[in-house]
Design brief:
It is a single chain. By secondary structure, the protein is an alpha/beta fold. The chain has 2 domains: 11-125, Spore Coat Polysaccharide Biosynthesis Protein SpsA, Chain A (Alpha-Beta Complex); 130-390, UDP N-Acetylglucosamine Acyltransferase, domain 1. It is built from 6 helices and 37 strands. The strands form 8 sheets. Strands 11, 12, 14, 15, 17, 18, 20, 21, 23, 25, 30, 33 and 35 form a 13-stranded parallel beta sheet that branches. The chain has a 6-stranded mixed beta sheet with strand order 4-1-5-8-7-9, with no helix packed on it. The chain starts with 10 loop residues before the first strand and ends in a 9-residue tail after the last helix.
């Protein structure tokens, strides 16, 4: 039973120390701005608590874009809502915090006494949690959505089968494709396009103005954020927004930030030849840590690009604002603001990275403004320790 009023509630989604384990994705955004399933974490909490008053408690250089809000309750930005959490948060008094195994989940006020939370919950610790949880949260998001009459009728050329729901938003262009909802639902947002010959399996979601190009093959647990463009073969990929993989080539078990571009015929391994577990670069420990996963492809930060025929090895982490090109496999960790490939890297000059961003973002009717530039400047400074060729 929900015990408090949501209508006037201000919530603050805070970043804790573990947010560094989500780099490079959280170098340019708070954890709560990450998309898990159809919506972002912040949007899930706003819907769950029926409020529009959402603020962030994040690093100072991000606060201009993601402002603070005087909050009635503060919630860990890596945490995903469920009914047990909502009820427990509603029972918090001023000066109390909700905690589980040393992780602060939520709090009210300043002087803290601890209440243990014994229920189950989902929280993201590493970037691969985003694609691991994608299918489950596509299903949850669709179950929680209040679909209205603003949707398109399926074109007669579209083949749909399976018992799960298929939602087609308004003003879409979806023709001569196959939508298989046998294993999970399919969500197609407003103004989205699926070109002819595409084969799609649910759970699958594409947000507003996303595009699937001709003949694409997309396997389950894939999410295309707003304005993303994809082609070729994808499996369990999450694109945050406005990123492109528009041509043939394989990408699997991957997370791409915003404003990324994957060149034509680029491929990424998501499984080692010996089928062993994958070690993945961890900014927090500054080393390659065991992931506990057998399948990880590519993790790529905002504003990074790769040229045609790029080959990424299993479990590659690419930082923010990198430019990768050339033959051979580049290293498994490519530091932020890198320029080069398998033959080695030099610094991707800050001014050059900003010039590219200023050319790319208007293509999606977005502006590379002083706020965006200031964030990139701080990221460039924060990540200098990993560009060892600068030493």
């Amino acid at each position: 039973m929900r015990l408090f009023s949501y209508t006037a509630m201000n919530i603050s989604l805070f970043d804790d120390a573990q947010v560094k384990g989500l780099y490079p994705l959280t170098l340019t955004r708070p954890a709560a701005d990450l998309r898990i399933g159809i919506s972002k974490i912040s949007e899930k909490w706003a819907a769950a608590l029926k409020t529009e008053f959402v603020g962030y408690a994040t690093l100072p250089y991000l606060e201009t874009k993601f402002p603070r809000l005087e909050a009635d309750v503060s919630i860990n930005g890596r945490l995903l809502p469920n009914e047990d959490l909502i009820s427990a948060i509603g029972l918090l008094n001023d000066g109390e915090q909700l905690e589980s195994d040393g992780v602060i989940l939520a709090f009210k006020g300043e002087k803290m006494s601890t209440k243990a939370f014994t229920g189950s919950f989902d929280i993201i610790n590493r970037p691969f949690d985003i694609f691991l949880k994608a299918g489950e949260f596509i299903k949850r998001d669709m179950e929680s959505m209040d679909f209205d009459d603003r949707k398109s009728e399926l074109h007669e050329s579209v083949r749909v089968f399976g018992e799960y729901p298929v939602y087609i938003g308004k003003d879409t262009d979806v023709k001569a494709c196959t939508l298989n909802a046998s294993e999970g639902p399919i969500y197609i947002g407003d103004n989205a396009t699926i070109m002819e010959g595409s084969l799609i399996r649910g759970p699958f979601a594409m947000c507003e103005k996303a595009v699937v190009k001709m003949g694409a093959k997309i396997y389950k647990d894939t999410v295309l954020g707003p304005g993303s463009v994809v082609g070729g073969e994808l499996s369990n990929v999450v694109m945050q927004a406005h990123s492109n993989k528009g041509h043939d080539g394989f990408l699997g078990n991957a997370v791409l930030g915003e404003w990324c571009n994957i060149g034509a015929d680029s491929n990424c391994s998501n499984l080692k030849n010996n089928y062993d577990g994958i070690k993945l670069w961890n900014y927090q420990s500054s080393k390659f840590d065991k992931s506990g996963q057998q399948f990880i492809g590519l993790i790529m930060g905002d504003h990074s690009k790769c040229g045609i025929n790029t080959m990424f090895n299993t479990g590659t982490v690419v930082g923010v604002a990198c430019n990768i090109f050339g033959s051979g496999f580049p290293r498994n960790f490519i530091p932020d603001f890198s320029w080069g490939g398998a033959g080695g890297f030099v610094n991707h000059k800050f001014e050059a990275a900003c010039k590219t961003a200023a050319l790319v973002m208007p293509r999606r009717k977005k502006e590379f403004d002083a706020i965006e530039e200031a964030i990139l400047k701080e990221v460039h400074a924060i990540t200098s320790e990993w560009r060892n060729w600068e030493k």
